[in-house]
Amino acid sequence: MGAGSSGAALAARLSEDPNRSVLLLEAGPDYPAVDQSPGDLLRTWISAGPHDWGLVARVSANREIAYPRGKVTGGSSAVNGHIALRGTPEDFDEWAAWGNYEWSFAKVLPFYRKLENDRDFQGDFHNANGPIWIERPRADDWQPINRAFHDACRELGYADVADHNDPRSTGVGPWPRNRRDGIRISTAIGYLNPARHRVNLTIRPFCNTHRVIVEGGRAAGVEVECGGVVQTLRARRVTLSAGAINSPAILMRSGIGPRDDLATLGIKSVLDLPGVGRNLIDHVLVPVVANPTAGVPHDPQVTNPIGIRYTASGSNEFNDMQMYVFTYFDKSLWVGSELDMPVPSVAVTPGLQRPRARGRVSLRSADPNVPAIIDLNYFDDPEDLRRMVEGVRIAWRLMNSARFAPYIKDFVNITPEIVASDSATADFVRNNCGTIYHPTTTAKMGPKSDPAAVVDQHFRVHGIDGLRVVDASVMPNIVRANTNLTCIMLGERAADWMRADSQ
Ligand SMILES: Cc1cc2nc3c(=O)[nH]c(=O)nc-3n(C[C@H](O)[C@H](O)[C@H](O)COP(=O)(O)OP(=O)(O)OC[C@H]3O[C@@H](n4cnc5c(N)ncnc54)[C@H](O)[C@@H]3O)c2cc1C
């Protein structure tokens, strides 16, 4: 259920076994070939328009932002910024230390390798045979501002990185991207299209799953709305891959979640699982926006080719920060921004990769057509704000460096007075921050002894047989990387286990 990053990978891999019958239900439309896909799914950097759920999230008591999620086969992988980064060994060794011993980096690396076809690197960390094409923008294709950013970073002491996916890398270099010949390689393109001929794989678009049907402690099927008609489908196994917002919402509508909260909405409890919807984590960024000098070339097709992975000062968490440089920054890249920006602007954006704050997804109503409440709760921990304030000052230094300054006419949303003041910079971060679009951990994996765990380390919902969650929801902590590759890797791992398991 859900044909996104995890769900499409899972369905394609499971249906490699001709003895299995796989039904893939997707709420959005399906485009069976690249040449039948609309342009917003192919050559854009981010597309949150026609194939979006239209969700809204609460940043603080008085601020809400648009919260894009892909609604189409390929899911968010079909609309995303296609930075193709892996989590680090530290991320997975933490997952393993929390009782998920199958998730050490050594155990996940084969699945990160399995999913990729890396044009640029081979060897122990890479592979050239997987469904997702990955390449790094060549230095010849960078824009002058990217070159200036790179040189300014080097002068500030950041190392030159050739491969950001090498687990030892830290510093500045080209982002690996799942983009080929200018086209975003979603999981619909990489996984589903080559599998469409299989008679044991049925892909049903425009099917909105309302809830899971549980009978005698076992998932027996789902209730879906298809063509305006609510129908019941029975199945031997049900797997939710609706993403970190909709999977917990579906669980709660099914009576699986915090009992008291469900009771207030009139939903009969099937299983009291307090962790459902809790522990929402998201990467937050803040753009420092400037007006470029006249005549600076910026090709919208090369807007964010390089960036930094770095460790904040005083932090003991390796690569806990990222920084992007957008040579062509506009509202399509910062969805829902209230800022009045000249077009095109340039922006340098620090982003937090190891947030301590935890938010929550909860139901507003038992009605499946009413979107969930998304409470991001950014900056609930002062250490998150501290690292972002420092990030803004690093961005400011880079943009005012001898290399970068000639490209800037004036700043749009920041002044020297703001940067000089701790409290003004903190306010700047709170008022200008946005999402990097990476919600996770709302149905987290963990042993039964962990009261907040929703699934075990093999994706099985604690206490309900035949029901799995396989998507960003299950990450015990967010990876310090953009989340798409990790979600695909989760789909690969789930398929590997499910093919070996008759339950
Ligand atoms: C605008 C944007 C930019 C991003 N940029 C990047 C990037 O550059 N690099 C990166 O690594 N990550 C990026 N991400 C994040 C990354 O794409 C996601 O983390 C990842 O795709 C999530 O995978 P998933 O399988 O958990 O969910 P999704 O891919 O969102 O899949 C969920 C699927 O379930 C379907 N669904 C949901 N509810 C129902 C229902 N009730 N019934 C039926 N179907 C349903 C949805 O329509 C969707 O197809 C971005 C995300 C967005 C939205």
What secondary-structure arrangement, pairings included, does this model have?
Blueprint: H1 5-14, E1 22-25, E2 56-60, E3 63-66, H2 89-97, H3 105-115, E4 116-118, E5 132-134, H4 144-156, E6 171-174, E7 179-180, E8 183-184, H5 187-192, E9 201-204, E10 207-215, E11 218-226, E12 229-234, E13 238-240, H6 243-253, E14 256-257, H7 259-264, E15 271-272, E16 284-285, E17 288-292, E18 306-310, E19 321-329, E20 345-352, E21 360-362, E22 373-375, H8 382-399, E23 408-411, H9 416-420, H10 422-432, E24 434-435, E25 467-469, H11 484-499
Parallel strand pairs: 1-9, 2-22, 4-5, 13-25, 14-15
Antiparallel strand pairs: 2-3, 6-18, 7-8, 10-11, 11-12, 16-24, 17-20, 17-23, 18-19, 19-20, 21-22
Helix pairs in contact: 1-11, 3-11, 8-10
Residues 1-7, 25-28, 46, 48, 68-71, 75-77, 79-83, 207-209, 241-244, 246, 250, 437-438, 471-472, 482-485, 487 line the site of flavin-adenine dinucleotide.
Structure description:
- With 503 residues, the chain is an alpha+beta fold.
- The protein has 2 domains: 5-126 and 182-280 and 438-499, FAD/NAD(P)-binding domain (3-Layer(bba) Sandwich), CATH 3.50.50.60; 138-174 and 284-354 and 379-432, Cholesterol Oxidase, domain 2 (2-Layer Sandwich), CATH 3.30.410.
- 23% of the residues lie in helices and 21% in strands.
- It contains 11 helices and 25 strands.
- It has helices at residues 5-14, 89-97, 105-115, 144-156, 187-192, 243-253, 259-264, 382-399, 416-420, 422-432, 484-499, and strands spanning 22-25, 56-60, 63-66, 116-118, 132-134, 171-174, 179-180, 183-184, 201-204, 207-215, 218-226, 229-234, 238-240, 256-257, 271-272, 284-285, 288-292, 306-310, 321-329, 345-352, 360-362, 373-375, 408-411, 434-435, 467-469.
- The chain has a 6-stranded antiparallel β-sheet.
- Strand 11 and strand 12 (229-234) form a beta hairpin.
- Helix 1 packs parallel to helix 11, helix 3 (105-115) packs across helix 11 and helix 8 (382-399) packs across helix 10.
- The longest helix has 18 residues, at 382-399.
- It starts with a helix and ends with a helix.
- The structure holds flavin-adenine dinucleotide (FAD).
- Flavin-adenine dinucleotide binds at residues 1-7, 25-28, 46, 48, 68-71, 75-77, 79-83, 207-209, 241-244, 246, 250, 437-438, 471-472, 482-485, 487.
